[in-house]
Amino acid sequence: MASISSIFRSKSFFLIFSIFFQYFILPLFLILVAAPLYTYYRTVTFLSKWKEGLYAPLTLDDCIHGTDDIHGRPGRAISGIVYLKCSHTFDDLVTKMEKAAIKHPKSMCIITRWMSVKFWKKCEDFKISNHISLNEESDPEKLSQFFTSLIDKGFPVGQPLWEFISLPNYAHVEYGTSSAIAMRVHHSLGDGLGFMAIIRDLCDKDPAADEEVEKLLEAIRKKMKLSFWKKISYVFQLIFATPAQALYLWMQGINSPCIPPSSNQDPNFDPDEPMLVNVSTLIDLPLLKRISKKTGVNVTSVCHAGVAGAVKRTIMDRGGDRAGDLVCLYVLPKLNHPGTLSNNV
């Protein structure tokens, strides 16, 4: 009984503090800090039109991702592997990426500062060969270790934030593929939709498949196009609901136990450093849709529940305490993001 009372008092304190922060601290921050900084940002970006060498200012979303440790241990790099049923040559990949780079100018830019505001700047010594490499390894175990090492590998200083790796000998028996391409792109260059666009640029034209993808993108664009009243409701949600909810749930995770290290963890592992938990699985989209239809929730929420369950299983398998709260916090909600993971905690 005492334990339940203690938990109730803690949660009550978290709730009271989050509401206090919402209505007494956040407004002062918005008026005295956020508004002047935004005004300064808009002024500098306007003056940048007469500054030579700058391609474009980073958007506010890009700036969020641009605060990452890009050249050390980037935590906001999107990594993936595209398995190909047919073989490919290194020269073909280079040729296609040269065309894709022209189509996406930011892929030839670096991040720089002017008057303390971040901008995209054309890389003067950009070479496509610096971003595409060849790995002829075929051993799945060695390649798995190689892919894991890419997750927190820093990007070269003074170069655009992406790299592609040709894997002509990587055949995946389960998927029935004969080669693959590993890709790593920093989130400041694009999101999941941008990642899909690059994959489409690499593939040969297929009218039937392209039509299906275009229908999918059109549906996403339609969903992202908000009415005036929807925008107003989202603004009120961001001001009056999201900060308090985010702070309340974040505070619940302060005293939660960490995920225990695995049995084969490096003995020199620094507990203060971020710990990577790598799990790969094949996502069966028809199964996700069936679960979504049966439970009445969208596919993104089903994926979210699956990730939470996987983290719980990892904690239990490593002998950890499953009691407590698990907190997952996205950096900042977006007004027109098509998914729900970024709009919820």
Automatic annotation (TrEMBL):
It is an enzyme of class 2 (transferase). One of its GO terms (molecular function) is diacylglycerol O-acyltransferase activity. Keywords: Acyltransferase, Membrane, Transferase, Transmembrane, Transmembrane helix. The keyword NAD does not apply. The chain crosses the membrane at residues 12-41. GO terms for cellular component: plasma membrane. Residues 102-215 form the O-acyltransferase WSD1-like N-terminal domain. It catalyses: an acyl-CoA + a 1,2-diacyl-sn-glycerol = a triacyl-sn-glycerol + CoA. GO terms for biological process: triglyceride biosynthetic process. Its EC number is 2.3.1.20. It comes from Folsomia candida (Springtail). This is diacylglycerol O-acyltransferase. Pathway: Lipid metabolism; Glycerolipid metabolism; triacylglycerol biosynthesis. The keyword Transmembrane helix applies.
